[in-house]
Amino acid sequence: MQKIVNFRLILFLAISLCLGIATAYFFLVKNLFFAITIPALFVACLMFFALYKKSAKGGRFIFCAVFIFVFLVGALNFDVKISSYKKADLDNHYYSVTAKVDSVKKTEYGSYAVLSKAHVKGNVEKDLRYKIALYVYGENSLDVGDIVSFNALLLDKDVTYEGRFSSYDVERKIKYTATLDASEVGLKGKDLNLFEKVRLAIRKTLSEGLGEEEFGTAYAMMTGEDEYIAPETLSSFRSAGVAHIFAVSGLHVGFIATALNFIFTKLKLKRLLKAVIITLILIFYSGVCGFSASSVRATIMSAVLLFSAVKGHKYDKYVSISLSCILVLMISPIELFCAGFQLSFSIVFGMFLLSRPTSKLFKFLPHKIASSLGAVISAQLTAIPISLALFDEFSTIAVIVNLLFIPVVGVIFIALFVCTIIGGLFGIEAVTLFLPGLALRLINYCVNAFDFKTFMVGGLTMGGFIVFYYMAMVIISGFIRCKKCLKIILSVGCITIFGIGSAFTTIKDVRSVKAYVVGDTTICATLVENRGDTALIVSGADYNFSTSRLKRLQSKVKDGCIERVFIMADGINPNKFISTMLGVFTFDTIYYFGESDLQKEISFEKSFPHLTLKSIKEGNAVELGEGKAYYSLDGNLITIQSQRYKVGIFACFGGDKVEYASAVADYDLLIAEDMAPSIFALYKPKQEIAYTLKTGYKNAQTGGTVQFLLA
To answer: CA nearest 274: which of 317, 305, 248?
Structure first.
């Protein structure tokens, strides 16, 4: 077997663990195809491994048994975590709560706090193992370490949210939610652990020594917390492809380890003592950063490198990343489905695979430049499919920006690290942070000065063909041992399958007409996208509705512009609705049902001179892409119709007072709310969905932004 692949036991154990966790996940989400295919292929590969050679079969069967054991450990560990999360329900009762604030983020309406060490008294009295997500409306001064008390309805979270696995909540052990006004939250004291004290000390030093904008950037670089960065600045960093400097990872840990190694080498410390001290410092720093997956991974890899040097062993990068992967997933198997883990581990592994072959393409350049190019390009090549899957886009200029940016960031990060410690200890942060502040100001200016969004590419759908992309990477890297000719044939074949398959799925996705249904207790809306022509149908909205669900549709709308908005419910004020929504989208024309109300239209156009408000009488149609949209049933039903599909959307009117059409229309999709059972029973559509939770029906409240392919 060693002649076929560069076999490393730890690496294949890590792969077995990941496959076991993935299998348990697919059973959880009821995807039986992958739930059966993954273990079947795993067993088939083990059989091939065991029977490949006649010699040493006994040893090979032992290895297979170990792999199966690790596979089962991964699956069972995931299942135990999920079962524990599910069993922690409090059954949605009111409780008197005392808890500690773990983290706080400011929102447009108040704060979002995560609470731990909660004690509840109500239907039951006990200490909670899981955390509470508390939404506080209004001005408040909540901060990390505060002990708070309040009375509230604690709602249980499920393992799925908006139709997807809630990896973030389950991994962070956030099980309950509560919503309160700021006046309803009482402060009872403070309780900070060592890591929190250090993090707050860093925050205090940076805030006193830097300007507001530089402080946000510096604090994110040092701790991974980006809550103090202006949204437009953070967006610019992401568009430039360098937002990874705000996720404490191998970049940051590597800078610190290199600097400490240089200092301790100059001090002539023994290798073992040097390795122990540096590792302890890195572990402490990872704790300050909340033991994120990327910081833990980087710390373990640095420790393996340091202790390998002590023993005189050759450093094996695949063993180090595999060992860190195993440790992280044994502690929390849910990490496998978190964006941070996926990006962190896959990019590093991709760099290990492709850096050397990529660097060879630039052998005409100086060695250091060629190596840097190889590392950056291989990282970007690995990240592209994951970025498309997670964020629907990637930056085409990221390679160039990173080559120019990372060396500068390295110098600034170390200077910032040292100056923060000295400034905080001696109270001279304004002096020590002056030069780092200037450098950060220059970085922010450069990133904000250019419109990097021009270089963002999206709209590509790869589906399962992404597997062939990464198979090609593994083959090209030389990890699989085969003749050069066969390597070329296999890699070209994989890339060809990936290219054709991705092109096919992308074209199919672009040509299809899609409807996105959004619903919660404050707003119900449907977005219909038809080859660039977009309409938002608002079926119901409270006066103070939440825009959080609608913001999830931003990636579905080209340039954030919705051509047409149809308002259905009589209680929706167009002026109030548009003024709130302009922070999310831009619009062209807004339609309402009935006779033209000249006073309403003049008032609207005075408030929004760049928009148009129009009335539509029953039966009149508006062109929408290939089809048309029209009101009926006294404005309680909007029908969007073309030759290929027909969608019916009912207003969230409540009660049972609407006279339905006697003739049953043939709808491909029908969307309704309060009267969903009677509506669906009468119209008998091919597909049906309720906006909010309705027993027996798909619904957008628990199913999230539900996508329907209409044609």
So the answer is: 305
